[in-house]
Amino acid sequence: MSILDRLFGRRPRSAAVAKERLQIVLQHERAGRSAPDFLPILQREILAVVGKYLDVTDDMIQVDLEKRGEISMLEINVELDKAKIKPRPPERKVEEGFVRWTAPAG
Amino acid sequence: MAKVITITSGKGGVGKTTTSAAFATGLAQRGHKTVVIDFDVGLRNLDLIMGVERRVVFDFINVINGDANLNQALIRDKRVDKLYIFPTSQTRDKDALKKDGVLRVMDELRNTFDYIICDSPAGIEHGAITALYHADAAVIVTNPEVSSVRDSDRILGMLASKSRRAERGEAPVEEYLLLTRYSPDRVEKGEMLSISDVQEILSVPLIGVIPESESVLKASNTGTPVILDQDSAAGRAYEDAVARFMGEQREMRFVRAERRGFLRALFGRA
After folding, report:
1. Which of A2, A16, A26 comes nearest B266 by C-beta?
2. What is the CB neighbour count within 10 angstroms for residue B93?
3. ipTM of the complex in this document
4. Which residue stretches of chain B are H helix?
5. Cα(B178)–Cα(B22) distance, rounded to whole angstroms?
6. Helix B146-162 and helix A14-33, axial crossing angle in degrees, nearest 10
7. How far apart are CA A29 and CA B147, in angstroms?
8. Of A1, A22, A30, the CB nearest to B190
9. Looking at the DSSP assignment, which residues form a beta bridge with residue B175?
């Protein structure tokens, strides 16, 4: 990058972008490395269930198992997009003890 | 008892074989009896880089299967005393590296050599895992580029979980980072990850920085380990890396951009 480029702030430094992207992806991958084998399957199944009611994509759900000392914590995060709520829930038998889900008006 | 050093990276084409050849040659030049083994079954290339491709008669797989003994398969280098090359086979059978067979051969080599350099194949499959399984130390060859850094991180995870040392609950494998194809010029322009960027991300001690250099291709063209070309920056940088591995303190060379003229600095590339 030339001095003129620097003075006028042209071109973002791609190396900085690379570093940031790597830090984010590796943080995620390192956490997954120590995770038990069932987590990806659990994640897929939860996604399938949530997907029956809401329009979700793979990257909107995150399942993490965290260990802090003696306590293990299963954390499930589902990111929702208001606009993507399905207009009608799928038909399914209402079992005893379950409340029928109704789509929000509008 | 030999020390096993695995040269690994995850990603292909980053310079594992070049580094294996350089490290083995450098250690032998220092008087240590050294063997360099090609673990890349099916895609044998160490023989070419070492310039011994026409001397291969028996290989690693022959010895594992008991079709030849070690002395028949080891090729003595004609340039450097105490340096031996152990080529692999070109078989397409991916599982030719049988675990107990490799273990037996490694044990035999451990008894007669000071250093065993394992040139790992790319990827994270059987060959790569077998190469890192036996490691006492590992040199992680990394290019300052996103996919290479990510793959190196993956390999570091495997060293911690899949090596023999991990399996047996022994002291962990010593890990060293070797940055290759480094362009100080591009780093200065903000186009390439810097040494400190990569170190910060991987947190592995740095053993050397090999600058991008035409001499590496020239060396492979002629089958000469680049470390023997002490007129080249890459050759000298490898020599430094081997010295650091042996515990010497050496300042990093070839890591700063050459000074540019005022006009070029002002207007960018001329």
Report:
1. A2
2. 10
3. 0.83
4. 16-29, 46-49, 60-64, 70-73, 99-112, 126-133, 146-162, 164-167, 184-188, 195-202, 214-222, 233-245, 262-267
5. 12
6. 20
7. 13
8. A1
9. B138
Identify which of B193, B99, B132 has the alpha carbon closest to the alpha carbon of residue B10: B132
Task: Report the residue of chain A nearest B268, measured CA to CA.
Answer: A2
Residue type, B51: G
Nearest-Cα residue of chain B relative to residue A31: B157
User: Over the stretch B220-248, which tens digit does the pLDDT of each residue have?
Assistant: 999 999 999 999 999 999 999 999 999 99
Contacts of B153 in chain A (CB under 8 A): 26, 29-30
Give the pairing type, strands B3-8 and B115-119.
parallel
A2/B267 Cβ within 8 A: yes
Distances (CA, A) of B9 to A13, B150, B252: 26, 10, 21
Q: How far apart are CA B258 and CA A40, in angstroms?
A: 49
Q: Taking a C-beta distance cutoff of 8 angstroms, is the pair B162, B133 a contact?
A: yes
Residue type, B19: T
pLDDT tens, B94-141? 778 889 999 999 999 999 999 999 999 999 999 999 999 999 999 999
The answer to whether A19 and B197 have CB atoms below 8 angstroms apart is yes
Torsion of CA B50, B52, B56, B62, to 10 degrees: -20
User: How is residue B173 written in tokens?
Assistant: 């494998």
Contact B150 A1 (CB under 8 A): no
CB contact under 8 Å between A15 and B153, yes or no, is: no
b/e A21-59 (16+ beta carbons within 10 angstroms → b): ebeeebeeeeeeeeeeeeeeebbeebbeebbeebebeee
Q: Where are the alpha helices (DSSP H) in B59-209?
A: 60-64, 70-73, 99-112, 126-133, 146-162, 164-167, 184-188, 195-202
pTM equals 0.80
For residue A34, the distance in angstroms to the closest alpha carbon of chain B comes to 9
Q: Which of B143, B147, B153 to mutate to test the interface with A (most CBs of A within 10 A)?
A: B153
